[in-house]
Amino acid sequence: MEAKELAEEKFEIDKLEILDASKLEFYRDDAGFVSLKYNGQEYFNVRLTRLTPFYSATTYISVAYDNEDNEFKEIGVIKDMKELSPEQYKLVDDYLEYKYFMPEITRVHSIKDNSRGFIFVDIDTSAGRKTICIRDWYSNFRMLSDKLLYAVDVDGNKYACHDIDKLDKKSMSVLEIYV
Hints:
Elements: H1 3-8, E1 25-28, E2 34-38, E3 41-43, E4 47-50, E5 59-66, E6 72-80, H2 86-99, E7 105-113, E8 118-125, E9 128-135, H3 137-140, E10 141-143, E11 149-152, E12 158-161, H4 169-175
Antiparallel strand pairs: 1-2, 2-3, 4-5, 5-6, 7-8, 8-9, 10-11, 11-12
């Protein structure tokens, strides 16, 4: 693109729409999907997404849906779930807990590399002991901060250790070359 074309190009900037929690009316429809009535409109099969999933489970929750043209549209953001009524809070929290089920890694027994781009990690988690297969370990088994280890297995299941300093010494020595 030439400089003149760049100067003429305009970008649409999204605005963060904070939803009025007192007007939100989430409900489960007959098929079991979460739907919403808000400001006189009804939205079917809404998607709730944590905008900061590793740092806050209950603040900045995006509420979106697919319109009649199957275009993803955000309705807005719940700033803090504490502003919801107890019934609404429970419905939203249940949805998010199911969507973001992420067992906590509590111990690492071993990591085996098969030299074909996969590693097999034998771990204890809050959901029991598992051996998970991870493809492209550099991208899917990594530190997101000084203490937060995040793993995604080949099936898309997610695991986390929010504070690796709390792992035992054997776990730390097993992890040493991978994180």
